[in-house]
C-alpha cells in the first residue's frame, strides 16, 4: 500500500531526500515536467488542455524528528527537537540515527534514582539522551556526526477494521493522495502538484514554491489534529475520527477563502461524502505561506484527522482518508468542467 511505504520512509524536516526520491520514482511517466527547486521541493506539472488557469495541490514531505547536538562521556547522544514535539512522548521511543539508520532508544535518569521533585514533574528534553550502545564518547563520535537527523522508528499497523497507526501521517497522507491524483487524467487547467519541504519548521518550502508558481488557486492536503479522546470536552474537539475529511476555516497561519471553503464543503455534502469543519483555529500548514504569495492566492485546506499527531503513533481512519481523496477528486472534476469557477472565488475589490 502506498501510504504504508510513505510512512515508513524517513524525512525529518531539512532531510527529505529519501521521501523525495521515492515520490519522484512514483511520479515518473505521469506528468509533463518534474522540477526540484533550490530548497528541495518536488514540483510535478500536468499541463492543461487550455491552460488559462494554474491550480496548485500541495502536501509536505517532511516530518517532525530530532537532531544530534552532542555526546556524553559515556557515549550517549544529546539531541534537540526538529519541529513541534510534545517532549512527554519521547522517553522509551525507538529511533533511527542518521543516514546509516543506527538503532537507538531515548532514555533518561532512571526513576528509582530521581528525587521526589523530579518524579513529580516532566523530564525536560535537555535531560534525555539517545542510547546507541556506545561505551565512550569517542566511539559515539565515530558512528554519529553532530547535526545528524534522528527519525522515529514506527511500523505501519492496522488497528481494528478501519484505523491505522503510523508515524508521519502528517503529511504522508497528503503525499499519498497527491500521488493518486498525479496518476490520473490531465485537466483543462495547468495542475501543479507540489511535494514541499520544511513545513514543520516554518512552511519554508511552500513559500518558495508558491512564489515560483503563483497559482490562481491552491488546495493544501494535510493531516490535522484530532482530539476526540477521553478528558477532552466535545466543544474542544478539533476534528472527530471517522466523520470525514476536515475543511479548515481558519488557523494560526491562514484564513481560507470563504467562497471556496463553502463550495468544497457543500460539494461533499451534495455527493454523500462524509465531511466536517475543523472546529479549532490551532496549528497551521502550508496554506499560510501560499495565501500571501506575491499578490495573494485563493487557498483552502482539506485534511485527514489524525490522533496523536507529531508522534511515532499517529492514528487515522481509513474512511477519512477515502473521504479526503474523493473530495479532492470531485473538486478537480468540477473545475475541469467549468474552469471559470477557479476565477470566481477571488475576492478582488474594484475600488474607484
How would you characterize this protein structure?
This protein has 352 residues and is an alpha+beta fold. The chain folds into two domains: 2-63 and 167-344, Aminopeptidase (3-Layer(aba) Sandwich); 65-152, Elongation Factor Tu (Ef-tu), domain 3 (Beta Barrel), CATH 2.40.30.40. The protein has ten helices and 17 strands. A hairpin with a 5-residue loop joins strand 1 and strand 2. Helix 5 (169-182) packs across helix 9 (318-337). The N and C termini lie far apart (56 Å).
What distinguishing features does this structure have?
single chain; 352 residues; alpha+beta; Aminopeptidase; Elongation Factor Tu (Ef-tu), domain 3; eleven-stranded mixed β-sheet; six-stranded antiparallel β-sheet; 10 helices; globular
H/E element sequence: HHEEEEEEEHEHEEEHEHEEHEHEEHH
- Per CATH, which architecture of the largest domain? 3-Layer(aba) Sandwich
Mean pLDDT, to the nearest integer, reads 94
What do we call the CATH homologous superfamily of the largest domain?
Zn peptidases
Main sheet properties: 11 strands, mixed
CATH topology of the largest domain: Aminopeptidase
Q: Structural class per helix/strand content?
A: alpha+beta
Task: Report Rg.
Answer: 21 Å
How many structural units, i.e. domains? 2
- Note the total helix count: 10
User: Hey, roughly how much beta strand do the residues contain?
Assistant: 25-35%
* CATH class designation of the largest domain: Alpha Beta
Overall, the morphology is globular
Unreliable residue runs: none
Q: N- to C-terminal separation?
A: 56 Å
> Helix amount, in percent?
25-40%
How many strand elements? 17
Amino acid at each position: 500500500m502506498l501510504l504504508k511505504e510513505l510512512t515508513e520512509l524517513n524525512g525529518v524536516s531539512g532531510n527529505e531526500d529519501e521521501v523525495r526520491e521515492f515520490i519522484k520514482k512514483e511520479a515518473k511517466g505521469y506528468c509533463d515536467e518534474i522540477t526540484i527547486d533550490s530548497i528541495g521541493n518536488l514540483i510535478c506539472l500536468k499541463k492543461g488542455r487550455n491552460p488559462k488557469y494554474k491550480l496548485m495541490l500541495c502536501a509536505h514531505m517532511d516530518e517532525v524528528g530530532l537532531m544530534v547536538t552532542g555526546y556524553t562521556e559515556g557515549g550517549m547522544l544529546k539531541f534537540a527537537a526538529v519541529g513541534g514535539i510534545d517532549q512527554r512522548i519521547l522517553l522509551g521511543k525507538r529511533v533511527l540515527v542518521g543516514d546509516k539508520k543506527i538503532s537507538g532508544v531515548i532514555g533518561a535518569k532512571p526513576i528509582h534514582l530521581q528525587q521526589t521533585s523530579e518524579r513529580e514533574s516532566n523530564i525536560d528534553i535537555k535531560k534525555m539522551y539517545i542510547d546507541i550502545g556506545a561505551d565512550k564518547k569517542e566511539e559515539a563520535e565515530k558512528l554519529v556526526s553532530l547535526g545528524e537527523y534522528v527519525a522515529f522508528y514506527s511500523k505501519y499497523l492496522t488497528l481494528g477494521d478501519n484505523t491505522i497507526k503510523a508515524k508521519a501521517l502528517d503529511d504522508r497522507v497528503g503525499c499519498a493522495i497527491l500521488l493518486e491524483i498525479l496518476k490520473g487524467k490531465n485537466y483543462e487547467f495547468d495542475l501543479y502538484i507540489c511535494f514541499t519541504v520544511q513545513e514543520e519548521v516554518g512552511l519554508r518550502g511552500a513559500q518558495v514554491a508558491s512564489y515560483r508558481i503563483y497559482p490562481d488557486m491552491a488546495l493544501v492536503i494535510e493531516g490535522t489534529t484530532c482530539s476526540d479522546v477521553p478528558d477532552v470536552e466535545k466543544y474542544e474537539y478539533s476534528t472527530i475520527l471517522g466523520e470525514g475529511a476536515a475543511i479548515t476555516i481558519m488557523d494560526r497561519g491562514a484564513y481560507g477563502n470563504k467562497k471556496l471553503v463553502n463550495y468544497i464543503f457543500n460539494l461533499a455534502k451534495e455527493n454523500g461524502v462524509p465531511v466536517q469543519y475543523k472546529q479549532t483555529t490551532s496549528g497551521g500548514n502550508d496554506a499560510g505561506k501560499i495565501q500571501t504569495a506575491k499578490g495573494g492566492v485563493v487557498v483552502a485546506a482539506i485534511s485527514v484527522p489524525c490522533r496523536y499527531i507529531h508522534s511515532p503513533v499517529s492514528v487515522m481512519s481509513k474512511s477519512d482518508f477515502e473521504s479526503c481523496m474523493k473530495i479532492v477528486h470531485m473538486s478537480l472534476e468540477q473545475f475541469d468542467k467549468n474552469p471559470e469557477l477557479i476565477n470566481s472565488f477571488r475576492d478582488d475589490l474594484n475600488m474607484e
